[in-house]
Known about the structure:
Blueprint: E1 11-13, E2 16-25, H1 31-40, E3 44-47, H2 48-54, H3 61-70, H4 83-90, H5 94-116, E4 124-128, E5 143-148, H6 151-162, H7 166-174, H8 179-184, E6 188-191, H9 196-218
Parallel strand pairs: 2-4, 2-5, 3-4, 5-6
Antiparallel strand pairs: 1-2
Helix pairs in contact: 3-5, 6-7
Bound molecules: adenosine-5'-diphosphate (ADP).
Amino acid sequence: MWRERDVGADLVVRGRTVITIGLTGGIGSGKSTVAELLRARGALVIDADRLAREVVEPGTPGLAAVVARFGEGVLGADGSLDRAALGRTVFADGDARRDLEAIVHPAVRSRAAELSALAGPDDVVVHMIPLLVETGQQDAFDLVVVVDVDPDTQLARIRDRDGLDESQARARVQAQASRAERLAAADVVVDNTGSLADLAVQVADLWRDHVVPRLTGNR
Ligand code: ADP
């Protein structure tokens, strides 16, 4: 049944609503792991990081715009974007970074909207967005899920996964919103301090308590 309060952030597909979840968390908090657990339950996962790479692939308007702004020096020998070179260009230059974001972010959002539109009735669409809070998108979804982990566990997992030393790992954490800012934006917090089995239980609870009731309400 159609419900007035479902109008807004929801997508309308053939007269029914799609449930949208904004999934975020600090680097290494376990977003990708949670996204996989949600995918296993049938959710359609849209990964903003992956889209951010796709929209500047060779031949895209995104890459053309980046080259127009930053010059051919950001291209590698094969004509693809040299991320390290671009990173050096925008590092410590706020204007350059904002210009880059003004190219990439709208392209990512428009591609994410295209992919969301492929969702069927009663689908659950998970938008995995590392910088959801930093980019002020907390009101764009039915449910904002924040994966939270204590700082020591977070640093240990990043170092392990990405082969970084302590200060490199800390720098990556510090470049993001604080834990408190992220938690303030959450409708649901998934605590990933424990084991993967603990995490799976929480995702099952999240699905049961926050997703299933919305799906049932749409029928
Ligand atoms: P994010 O996508 O938020 O950066 P990941 O899902 O990649 O984080 O998780 C970071 C690292 O920690 C990965 O190597 C992942 O396999 C590992 N990890 C995630 N959750 C747990 C957990 N509960 N126990 C142990 N390792 C975990």
